[in-house]
């Protein structure tokens, strides 16, 4: 435990102790030591350097009694699949970023650096499990079988969603920070009730994705309280990418977020989020735990957002290049590639094939996006009610008149008022 | 080149309206593939590289490096007769007839002029009503005014005046100013909505550097034109404002017999009053300075001593029952004395707004001749430069001028004790043909009385 950690836990102790000794002028010198007296918090369970890791940064396999067996059970084909998924989503991400720079998307949310956290957790899910993403879970979307081109509809502004969540058990992107964690717990409680009503229902669990920034939102707290109270089958999967837009993690929390699990009385696991094998194993354990009726789990995947928060963000304004360079040495793809090559699980041909597959997907995504055309606001009027409604008709008529009042509308009548 | 694809400058942030072309990464005749980087642009948010949406040969670079263009402007044309690489299928280009504006493939999101949140789409009615003067400006200004100026009884001119002392500038300009140690208030703004542009900042910096550099090399022989006889002598043609100022000053100094008097004033209560005004909600966003109280004091004192607000014609003394209060201002073009028309009718707040507007206009070098005509009495704020006082020269056509010295803490005797107080010196020059010693003294004493006790204004 580092000095900062110790200091942080000291302040906790002071806060807790002062409730029982008001106005006694309690100061640092008279503070009780952690764990010394009854009712005084112990030091934090998980330090900032501790995390489950099955591949070190050079790709060497590490052993963990609890989690290594999950990897030992995998075929080489599956582990190659992890790499393929990560490489494909990275290529997809580059294409989407380019499309935004070309004016074809209003915004894009890059995922570079977080591929292992997403592919590892996504691949650990069963098809009956259900994922509630933020707006950056492109890797999870891939593991749930989505056509990634569908993700871009939202960012092009032509759809409020883009896919049918019931087909893939991958919920729509939620741009309201942390709101999806409540939805996830609600869904998990629904699974409990389905099971109670019909014990033959296939057991399933829910993964609630959120980030370090969202962890400061009240919604996350409420969702964890409910999940713990009801023992809901939900895995809170926090990708701690170290930056909440421009706010560094140290500002969000003095201690690793996983320590919050203790406060809710649920298991917490901190995992190296750039180690896809560790993320897979930990997620698999947590999902089994939840599915088997033991209640929620909090996973903190320590990772890093290598790119900008969104295409409208410029990270050079708030963080040092050296930090980005440091995290690039922990790249999740390089790490798994080193492992695959060292273990003779994959050859050059495989990596070439993955690259070609990525380019093919990128070309498909570009073509599909350009074919989307523009948004038609009239379609919004048409979907307010199931049937025609006089008020909506009146408002549409007003809108048509308003649109026609612009000079440019007269030249481009078919434009649809997408602006 | 039969078929060209045009790439319009996209909005790469959320709601950006323009960007500067920093550098082209391709040149005419280069072959580019989709997603090859073609240009680097700088927006208000960041520097961004743009990848090509098309494959083909670069046919036209339509914007020069260093130019700032609106989002939606075509910046490059790429020819499509060169086959695109197999792996990257060419994008779907609408085969519209060749007409540069209509032909461009519209990036559908956030980049057309329609998506621009700041500019307004022209309305059909506005375009046809050619006689109505500047309807767009009125439309933009109107909704803003009530929000920022809650008092409803302002004259329309005051409504158009800047409401806030915060200078408009984009974040990179603000940062550059901060880095250079330049106060944006000092920079003349030429931007579309009165914002300080990067160009403004740089030209200010150039000027400042030139002046500072000049100091170092001043004693060295000058170089440049007009130095035929002696390189150590520099000749500057007298013209424009300098010439007019010189003429007016000679006219005034040698036709009007000046009498100057001075008075030290304890302005502590004025400072306190200004502080309270600044903190009051009613004056939120309005710049308040001691000059405001002085201006009010001068108007108040002139009403009690009307002869100071007059003109000498030789056979008549014209007493003015209105106050067009002149404020001497150093501007980029030289000394100007614009005046606030009918200042006697303005409330304290309206006067504050008028002073701010006058100063902003003067600093920007945009003072109009009409603003300088018909002055009745002038105030010169030499205190702004840290000067205690001086003998001002009367603005021609007037008979009195007040110089407002710097206000600083000085030892002051109050009830037999020496205590630090905010002290200033008022200087006044009067045309003795009109204003005799006792009148000038009473006028100055009245002005001083207000600075010592602004509450008298309520009288």
From TrEMBL, chain A:
Transmembrane segments: none
Pfam families per record: E1_dh
Source organism, top-level taxon: Bacteria
GO molecular function: magnesium ion binding; oxidoreductase activity, acting on the aldehyde or oxo group of donors, disulfide as acceptor
Chain segments carrying region Disordered: 1-29
A single GO BP: branched-chain amino acid catabolic process
Cofactor: thiamine diphosphate
KW Oxidoreductase (keyword) present: yes
UniProt domain Dehydrogenase E1 component: residue ranges: 84-356
Biased composition annotated in UniProt, kind: Low complexity: 1-21
Keywords noted in UniProt: Oxidoreductase, Pyruvate, Thiamine pyrophosphate
SUPFAM superfamilies per record: Thiamin diphosphate-binding fold (THDP-binding) (SSF52518)
PANTHER family with a match to the protein in the record: 2-OXOISOVALERATE DEHYDROGENASE SUBUNIT ALPHA, MITOCHONDRIAL
NCBIfam families: PDH_E1_alph_x (TIGR03181)
Protein name in UniProt: Pyruvate dehydrogenase (Acetyl-transferring) E1 component subunit alpha
Source organism: Arthrobacter psychrolactophilus
Gene: pdhA
UniProtKB/TrEMBL annotation, chain B:
Keywords attached to this entry: Acyltransferase, Lipoyl, Transferase
UniProt-listed InterPro entries: 2-oxoA_DH_lipoyl-BS, 2-oxoacid_DH_actylTfrase, 2-oxoacid_DH_E2_comp, Biotin_lipoyl, CAT-like_dom_sf, E3-bd_dom_sf, PSBD, Single_hybrid_motif
GO MF entries: acetyltransferase activity; lipoic acid binding
Ranges of residues in domain Peripheral subunit-binding (PSBD): 168-205
Sections of the chain in a coiled coil: none
Transmembrane spans: none
A Pfam family hit: E3_binding
Superkingdom as given in the UniProt entry: Bacteria
All copies of domain Lipoyl-binding, residue ranges: 4-79
EC number(s) from the headed UniProt entry: 2.3.1.-
GO CC term (a single one): cytoplasm
Co-factor requirement: (R)-lipoate
Major enzyme class: transferase
UniProt similarity note: Belongs to the 2-oxoacid dehydrogenase family.
Stated name of the protein: Dihydrolipoamide acetyltransferase component of pyruvate dehydrogenase complex
């Amino acid at each position: 435990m580092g000095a900062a950690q110790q200091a942080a836990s000291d302040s906790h102790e002071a806060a807790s102790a002062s409730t029982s000794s008001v106005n006694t002028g309690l100061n640092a010198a008279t503070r009780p030591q952690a764990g010394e007296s009854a009712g005084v918090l112990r030091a934090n369970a998980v330090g900032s350097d501790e995390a489950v890791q099955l591949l070190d940064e050079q790709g060497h396999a590490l052993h963990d009694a609890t989690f290594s067996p999950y990897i030992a059970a995998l075929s080489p084909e599956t582990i190659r699949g992890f790499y393929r998924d990560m490489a494909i989503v990275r290529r997809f991400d580059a294409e989407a970023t380019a499309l935004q720079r070309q004016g074809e998307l209003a915004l894009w949310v890059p995922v570079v650096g977080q591929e292992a956290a997403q592919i590892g957790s996504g691949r650990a899910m069963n098809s009956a499990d259900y994922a509630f993403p933020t707006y950056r879970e492109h890797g999870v979307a891939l593991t749930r079988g989505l056509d990634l081109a569908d993700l871009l509809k939202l960012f092009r502004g032509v759809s409020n969603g883009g896919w049918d969540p019931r087909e893939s058990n991958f919920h729509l992107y939620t741009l309201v920070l942390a709101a999806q964690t409540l939805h996830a717990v609600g869904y998990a409680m629904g699974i409990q009730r389905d099971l109670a009503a019909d014990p033959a229902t296939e057991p399933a669990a829910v993964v609630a994705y959120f980030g370090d920034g969202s962890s400061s939102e009240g919604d996350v707290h409420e969702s964890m309280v409910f999940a713990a109270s009801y023992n809901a089958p939900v895995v809170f999967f926090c990708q701690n990418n170290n930056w909440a837009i421009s706010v560094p993690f140290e500002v969000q929390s003095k201690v690793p977020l996983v320590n919050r699990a203790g406060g809710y009385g649920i298991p917490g696991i901190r995992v190296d989020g750039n180690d896809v094998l560790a993320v897979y194993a930990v997620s698999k354990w947590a999902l089994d735990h939840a599915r088997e009726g033991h209640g929620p789990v909090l996973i903190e995947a320590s990772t890093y957002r290598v790119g900008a928060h969104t295409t409208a963000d410029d990270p050079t304004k708030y963080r040092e290049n050296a930090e980005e360079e440091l995290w690039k040495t922990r790249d999740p793809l390089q790490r798994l590639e080193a492992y695959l090559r060292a273990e003779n699980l994959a050859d050059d041909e495989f990596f070439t094939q993955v690259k070609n597959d990525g380019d093919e997907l990128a070309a498909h995504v570009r073509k599909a996006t350009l074919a989307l055309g523009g948004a038609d606001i009239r379609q919004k009027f048409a979907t307010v009610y199931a049937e025609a409604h006089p008020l909506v008709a009146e408002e549409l008529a007003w809108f048509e008149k308003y649109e026609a009042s612009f000079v440019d509308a007269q030249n481009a009548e078919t434009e649809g008022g997408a602006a | 080149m039969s078929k060209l694809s045009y790439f319009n400058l996209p909005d790469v942030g959320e709601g950006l309206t323009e960007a500067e072309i920093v550098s082209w990464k391709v040149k005419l005749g280069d072959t580019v593939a989709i997603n090859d980087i073609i240009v680097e642009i700088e927006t208000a948010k960041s520097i961004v590289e743009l990848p090509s949406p098309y494959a083909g040969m670069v046919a036209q670079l339509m914007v020069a490096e260093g130019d700032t263009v609106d989002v939606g402007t075509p910046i490059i044309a790429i020819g499509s007769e060169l086959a695109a690489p197999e792996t990257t299928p060419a994008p779907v280009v609408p085969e519209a007839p060749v007409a540069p504006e209509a032909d461009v493939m519209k990036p559908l999101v956030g980049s057309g002029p329609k998506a621009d949140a700041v500019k307004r789409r022209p309305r059909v009615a506005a375009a046809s009503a050619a006689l109505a003067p500047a309807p767009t400006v009125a439309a933009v200004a109107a909704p803003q005014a009530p929000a920022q100026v809650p008092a409803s009884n302002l004259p329309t001119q005051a409504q158009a005046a800047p409401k806030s002392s915060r200078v408009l500038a984009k974040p990179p300009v603000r940062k550059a100013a901060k880095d250079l140690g330049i106060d944006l208030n000092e920079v003349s703004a030429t931007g579309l909505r009165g914002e300080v542009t990067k160009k403004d900042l740089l030209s200010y910096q150039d000027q400042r550097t030139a002046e500072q550099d000049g100091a170092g090399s001043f004693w060295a022989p000058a170089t440049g034109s007009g130095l035929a006889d002696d390189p150590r002598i520099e000749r500057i043609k007298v013209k424009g404002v300098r010439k007019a100022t010189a003429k007016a000053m000679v006219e005034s100094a040698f036709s009007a017999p000046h009498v100057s008097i001075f008075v030290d004033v304890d302005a502590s209560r004025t400072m306190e009053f200004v502080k309270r005004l600044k903190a009051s909600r009613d004056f939120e966003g309005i710049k308040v300075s001691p000059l405001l109280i002085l201006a009010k004091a001068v108007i108040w004192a002139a009403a009690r001593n009307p002869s100071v607000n007059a003109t000498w014609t030789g056979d008549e003394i014209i007493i003015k029952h209105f106050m067009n209060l002149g404020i001497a201002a150093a501007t980029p073009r030289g000394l100007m004395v614009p005046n606030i028309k009918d200042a006697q009718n303005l409330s304290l707040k309206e006067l504050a707004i008028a002073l701010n507007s006058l100063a902003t206009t003067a600093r920007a070098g945009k003072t109009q001749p009409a603003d300088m005509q018909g002055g009745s009495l002038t105030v010169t704020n030499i205190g702004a430069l840290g000067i205690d006082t001086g003998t001002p020269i009367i603005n021609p056509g007037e008979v009195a001028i007040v110089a407002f010295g710097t206000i600083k803490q000085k030892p002051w005797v109050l009830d037999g004790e020496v205590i630090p107080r905010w002290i200033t010196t008022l200087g006044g020059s009067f045309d003795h043909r009109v204003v005799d010693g006792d009148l000038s003294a009473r006028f100055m004493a009245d002005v001083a009385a207000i600075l010592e006790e602004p509450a008298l204004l309520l009288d």
